[in-house]
Design brief:
The complex is a heterodimer of chains A (307) and B (506). Chain A is an all-alpha fold and 307 residues long. Chain A is built from 15 helices and no strands. The chains are: A mainly alpha (307), B alpha+beta (506). Chains A and B meet through α3, α7 and α13 of A and α1, α6 and α12 of B.
Chain lengths: 307, 506
């Protein structure tokens, strides 16, 4: 097990470095940051001054290594746009994104578990088709579009919920639904498949033969076993929800990390952008690692194959 | 994706009529405004976004005020002023004005602010706003002298626009960083709360000086929120979550005009739109070196039709490369290129392109307008490919001599003087890709004289040459659409400055 964890840790570290490297070069080739900082009508002298001030005149590999070295030492640099330290700026926004991420995950599970179980119990019936239909819609409908539909119904027509902002819990309802619904289908299909397999197992037949109530067989015996793969998927999905909230936070003007990412892309705020990419990739890598370890712990065949 | 967004916008608009939500804002005397961009700093010298200019005008004051209705200059923090010589201006300041933190306004405020921002090391974001200041000196407690680095006739315009006055003691103590955290001005509104990237709350300055040509604020409280998504801003105003939004696209503004609780106001802006041709040596499109080809393009575009059907109310067709209200801007006697596709084809044939040619148009905003232009060019045989990118990327290409035709827009930083527009594209600056020495010399003459008639004459000849030689095709001015509560009384101005202090509840 420890060899497996060591190997996965090494891989995780390499992934984080590779992501930061790719992000760094992609951001740089997307345009000259000095031009973006200078704005309309800047003279050549202004541009030269900006390039010197921010060190953009040095070769790219040197800039990357310099950034990496400073980051490793905990010096995350200053936001070019907000002119404040990038580290505290990002961490001040993290809470909103974490609240949204966990709430959306909870929402996804609350939608997918009952639907997945129902679909499995009534396999191939109209209930199954309906549940699968909802899953297909959830996956096919872009979340920004679903978000706008929610706004239209709950804010404009009914006037129940505020459109944007992050002051009260009501502000989080629609973003949570929009993000959670998008993540639900993956869970639902996994639960459905798991439940179908488990429901046909001998021990379930035995439990039924004992005359246990149907709900007890399903919830206590079948679901407990069928949900194991979902635990591993949860970790990965949480990473996806945290990183994937850029669009949702922007639509609902939620003052979180995703919104900050959007702003830093718009204003070519490279230090902030790089740090967000690094932070999200580290979170994602850590969660994937946790999922791998959980999987290996649950299923010894995985760790044997991997070492 | 864009199709889905359009569909979503249409659905939002369709839901307008069914709107039932109610949030009273007139009752609590709070005006809620949503805008797309968050300023990088609230200190007006350290941002270059529209909302920064708007906050600047509401929280701070300038020495001079340009009345947007008459374009007449009036004393604001200054009581009077005089041009002593070509490079020197003297100002007599108003007495008894206090900053929001209680600090007294006097010559020290003006001298400290101007000397601070004029120094390149202090890195004011838009250097063009301040790099003409040589120094400011205190003559007595309420009298100052400002010296410009060169003859700079537009100084008054800048002193009536982006150059606001900060409190000397406070600014010396906290600098731009502190000014951003706790902004202090003399303006009709004071900053009550500010959360960077999220919102700013302003409250009426109850001690605002009564002689100000701006006049005191009428609405007690102002909440400005930064909401990046256009559909969300529209939904906010539809659901009465905010009272006013600006920059609503034309088609959606038309839909919103039908909503019972909303009013849509359109107005012209100072932002001009034009096609810029690259005639430099080594440029990719050699056809554009021929003036007949450039003229053919000018004749091929149905500007009236595009303005009427696509650009929208408030816009007007332009015949010279500047905004008509700017000092020195004129289209009198300019060559006019009326819409005439037959003539365009004839000119192309004369230039050796009877079947047209292939080219590329770079653009960065108002994509639908560029597409309309491309379709006009197609009709005379010119096949133009669209190269759409962000502004910075497009400018990089233009400056690297890689453009053929670029769909440019220019807002002149709301400065009402042609020295803020034409020289950028024709005085051998980085964005000048026609490099006509004759035009440049005329612009230099206009820029370096304080004699109004001489300036006007020089600019007129320069503009005439630009039109005659068709270095650009002036297209139209851009309109701006505001959607707001019917309970609100407000007016749109070409400089796109939202004057909250003038607004009131009906």
């Amino acid at each position: 097990m420890s060899a497996f964890i060591a190997k996965r840790l090494g891989l995780a570290f390499l992934v984080a470095v590779a992501v930061s490297l790719i992000a760094f070069f992609l951001l740089r080739i997307s345009g000259d940051p000095a031009l973006a900082i200078a704005g309309e009508g800047a003279s050549q002298a202004d541009l030269d001054l900006i390039r010197r001030t921010y060190g953009f005149d040095r070769p790219l590999p040197i800039q990357y290594l310099d950034w990496l070295w400073r980051t490793v030492r905990g010096d995350f640099g200053d936001s070019i746009y907000f002119k404040t330290a990038a580290g505290p700026l990002i961490f001040s926004k993290l809470q909103t994104t974490l609240v949204l991420g966990f709430a959306a995950l909870l929402c996804a599970l609350l939608i997918s578990i009952p639907l997945g179980v129902l679909a499995a119990i009534y396999k191939d019936s109209w209930i199954d088709r309906l549940c699968l239909g909802l899953a297909v819609v959830g996956q096919a409908l872009p979340n920004f579009f679903f978000a706008l539909l929610l706004i239209m119904v709950f804010s404009i027509t009914l006037g129940w919920l505020p459109v944007s902002g992050s002051e009260t819990w009501q502000h989080f309802v629609m973003p949570t639904l929009a993000l959670g619904y998008y993540a639900a289908p993956a869970f639902m299909r996994l639960i459905r498949a798991g439940m179908i397999e488990v429901l046909e197992a001998d021990y379930i037949r035995t439990a039924r033969a004992y005359g246990l109530p149907a709900w007890r067989v399903i919830l206590r015996h079948a679901l407990r076993n069928a949900i194991i793969p979902v635990v591993a998927l949860t970790a990965v999905q949480l990473g996806f929800l945290l990183g994937g909230s850029v669009v949702i936070e922007t639509i609902f003007a939620l003052d979180g990390l995703g919104y900050l990412a959007y702003q830093s892309i718009t204003y070519k705020d490279f230090p902030v952008m790089q740090l967000i990419v690094l932070l999200l990739s580290v979170i994602y890598v850590v969660l994937t690692l946790a999922a791998d370890i959980a999987n290996a712990w649950l299923d010894p065949r995985i760790r044997v194959a991997a070492v | 994706m864009p199709a889905l967004k359009t569909l979503a916008a249409a659905l939002l608009a369709a839901a307008c009529v069914a709107s039932t939500a109610a949030h009273a804002t007139k009752k609590d005397d709070t005006l809620r405004f949503a805008t797309d961009q968050a300023p990088e700093s609230v200190d007006p010298f350290f941002n270059n976004v529209r909302i920064g200019v708007i906050i600047g005008a509401n929280v701070w004051d300038t020495l001079i005020y340009r009345d947007p209705k008459t374009n007449e200059y009036k004393g604001n923090l200054a009581k009077s002023w005089k041009q002593v010589d070509e490079r020197t201006l003297e100002f007599e300041l108003r007495e008894g004005i206090k900053f929001h933190n209680g600090e007294e306004f006097d010559a020290d405020s003006v001298v400290f602010t101007l000397n601070f921002v004029g120094k390149a090391d202090n890195k004011v974001t838009t250097q063009a706003n301040v790099n003409w200041i040589e120094k400011a000196e205190k003559l007595d407690k309420f009298k100052v002298r400002i010296t410009t680095k060169r003859t700079f006739p537009a100084a008054i315009e800048y002193l009536a626009g982006p150059v606001v006055i900060h409190p000397a003691k406070y600014y010396a103590q906290v600098g731009p960083k502190g000014m951003n955290e706790k902004p202090v001005g003399t303006g009709p509104y004071r900053v009550a709360a500010y959360v960077p990237g999220k919102s700013i709350t302003l409250e009426k300055n109850t001690n605002y000086f009564k002689d100000s040509p701006k006049g005191s604020a009428k609405i007690g409280k102002l909440e400005i929120r930064f909401v990046p998504d256009q559909q969300t801003r529209m939904a906010e105003v539809l659901s009465k979550g905010v009272d006013l939004i600006m920059h609503v696209p034309k088609d959606q503004a038309e839909q919103m005009g039908k909503v019972p609780h909303l009013q849509v106001v359109s107005g012209e802006t100072m932002r001009i739109v034009f096609l810029q041709f690259n005639t430099l040596d080594g440029a990719p499109g050699k056809a554009l070196k021929d003036p007949r080809v450039r003229k053919a393009i000018a004749h091929a575009i149905d500007r009236e039709g595009i303005v009427k059907n696509i650009v929208g109310a408030g816009a007007r067709v332009l015949h010279s490369n500047c905004f008509p209200s700017q000092f020195g801007c004129t289209d009198e006697g300019m060559t006019r290129y009326k819409y005439d596709p037959v003539l365009a084809k004839k000119l192309l044939a004369e230039a050796g392109y009877p079947n047209g040619f292939e080219t590329e148009i770079f653009a960065y905003r108002e994509r639908h307008q560029t597409e309309a232009i491309i379709s006009s060019l197609q009709a005379v045989g010119i096949k133009a490919k669209l190269g759409f990118s962000q502004y910075a990327a497009m400018r990089e290409q233009v400056r690297a001599n890689k453009s053929q035709i670029s769909h440019q827009t220019w807002g002149s930083f709301s400065v009402n003087d042609v020295s803020a527009s034409i020289p950028v594209y024709f005085a051998f600056e980085a964005d000048d890709i026609s490099r006509d020495a004759e035009v440049r010399d005329l612009l230099v003459r206009g820029n370096t004289s304080v004699e109004p008639t001489l300036r006007k004459a020089a600019y007129k000849v320069a503009l005439t040459l630009i039109a005659e030689r068709a270095y650009t095709v002036p297209l139209w001015s851009l309109p701006v659409f505001y959607a707001g509560s019917k309970e609100l009384s407000f007016k749109a101005y070409p400089d796109e400055i939202v004057r909250f202090w003038e607004m009131s509840w009906k």
